[in-house]
Design brief:
heterodimer; A: D-Maltodextrin-Binding Protein, domain 2; D-Maltodextrin-Binding Protein, domain 2; 2 domains; 6-stranded mixed sheet; 5-stranded mixed sheet; 13 strands; General L-amino acid-binding periplasmic protein AapJ (chain A); transport (chain A); Solute-binding_3/MltF_N (chain A)
Amino acid sequence: MKKMILPVALGAAFAAASFSVASAGTLEDVKERGKLRCAVSTGLAGFSYTDENGKWQGFDVDYCRAVAAAVLGDADAVEFSPATGKTRFTMLASGEVDILSRNTTWTFSRDVDLKFTFLGVSYYDGQGFMVKKSLGVNSAKELDGATVCIQTGTTTELNLSDYFTAEGMSYEPLAIETNTEGRQNYLADACDVYTTDASGLAASRATFENAADHIILPEIISKEPLGPLVRHGDDQWADIGRWVLNAMKISEEKGITAANVDDMAANSKDPEVKRLLGVSGEMGASIGLDNDFALQAIKAVGNYGEVFERHLGTETKVNLARGLNASWTEGGLQYAPPFR
Amino acid sequence: MSDNSVAFVATSDKPQLPAPQGTTGAVGWVRQNLFSSSLNTVLTLLSIFVVFSVVPGIVDWAFVKSVWNANSLDECRQISDGACWAVVRERYNQFLFGFYPTELYWRPILAFVLLFVALVPALWDNMPGRGKALIFSMAYPFVAFYLIWGGFGGLEYVSSSQLGGLLLTMIIGVAGISFSLPIGIILALSRSSNLPIVKSLAVIFIEFIRGVPLITLLFVAHVLLNYFLPKGVNFDIVLRVVIMVTLFASAYMAEVIRGGLAALPKGQYEAADALGLGYWQSMRLIILPQALKISIPGIVNTFIGLFKDTTLVLIIGLMDPLGLVAPTLGDQRWNGIVVELYAFIAFMFFIFCFAMSRYSMYLERKLHTGHR
């Protein structure tokens, strides 16, 4: 019997240790660490980039800051991990980061097979085409026989092939690896058409010396709903991420901005605004946060519209119109469930 | 009598004539080296043509028309169509230190300076008091580790996600270089050893590592290890990469050194045995000094290759200088600038690789004792 004690004790200790690790929620981990770990893109115009001080900025980045502000009360308590297209899912699955905010398309297999929970759609994108005006083409349906610059190994490649097959047209693919390479090839007339997500096309066009000589064709051939995601299995954490995103959208509907959020909290008569900003009710407490979590998030980065305009909007060089990403009250698709 | 029978006797040397015209001086050099045959003449003219058609354009672009003061690519283009070095001027801190906190820059800088202090006794073997200085060289990796990461003893902790730029390259490169040489020597000795287990372990390790691309090992370091380790155990990513790069380089190093061992005549081994030296004594005093000397070009070649291979870490999302290009381009003020950034990075790498290669040439000359 004596001999059994050590292995059993070790086994029990190991089981207890692994059990305690497994049971600790992401929220507790983040609070204990005092920092949110967030994976962002290694660099994509408007979505994530570094400023002159080496600070991460961008549309995806600001969402992480909003979550950090909501959870920890400090928008700068984020440790950003740049993730490539290849490493992003393992980083999230292995627990190296708490949340992935890296312009990731919401698809069935990512949701189900890879076991991630998507928290909503932060940006509705779609694949588009850019051509030179001199080509005299006004619609993607006139592109029969064109040479197309296309990033290999992406969903864009599959979408392109599907689209041309469906339209009964042929094309000559020119395989490229990176956005930069695609841009150079397109400008050097190695291909007639450059295709990638419409936001990427707009960002590229903005850098051309004669942007007006290039047009983005009206056809959008795929659905690319981009959004943040977390691991399966921690619903509380998923709820937090989802409702921070929703709070940013509701704030836009209600006209709450980073500048007036304190004023709104003090003076607004709207019951939903009062609930959202934690003046009435116990909404924050029920997901394990302070009642003013949304107020903290909005104060840190502003509402959805403000974040959009700051990094992607028509005032920036990326120069994207709100389009599908306008609030539903203005004809777009951004629609948050009610906060009650 | 005899005086008259000889018509003429030279009593002194004739004055030396100058060499035929056109075989000495600048003209001679040019003739001998540039126009010695019709093929050489053609090649020379072609080279001159290439140099003249390329160099003025580059100099004009990089220096004459270059812009150093601007806040965006647009401003640069308005000023001139030369190189827009303003982006380097704004971002060089990031390219050197990554996201290291600005107020703590003195720590990596101190570590960098100490690197040279540690290198001097290792590289200069006539240094006075070398024995004591070498102890510091051995301790250097730990000193540097403490300076860069901190975390105890009064230095604020800096996490690996804040490391980047040339600092990251130096960490991976220097650690890989300094650990791969001793590991490589041990592997090479094991592989040429007579002990079957030691030998087969070395063979398996070397052949496995050499049969796998570095990228694969980096993916293993980044992705697979996370699945093997229990959740919540955070094994530092930079450390994981350093270990993988070191293992990779040591396998190559082992083969380079084994080449040196094989090149030694058998007589050297027998002479060592005849002197009654044990295995370690003969290796340390007779075999390795000669084998390593022969292997110097190969060793430095591996070092330089390793240093440049560190850029592969951008694939797993680490922000080495090349990795920092993408977030810089993501900034809308600089979106579209490409050549300047890559040229700057190439320049940084050139400095280090060139220095290593020059040092190896110096070492070869110094150790050239006339055997070859």
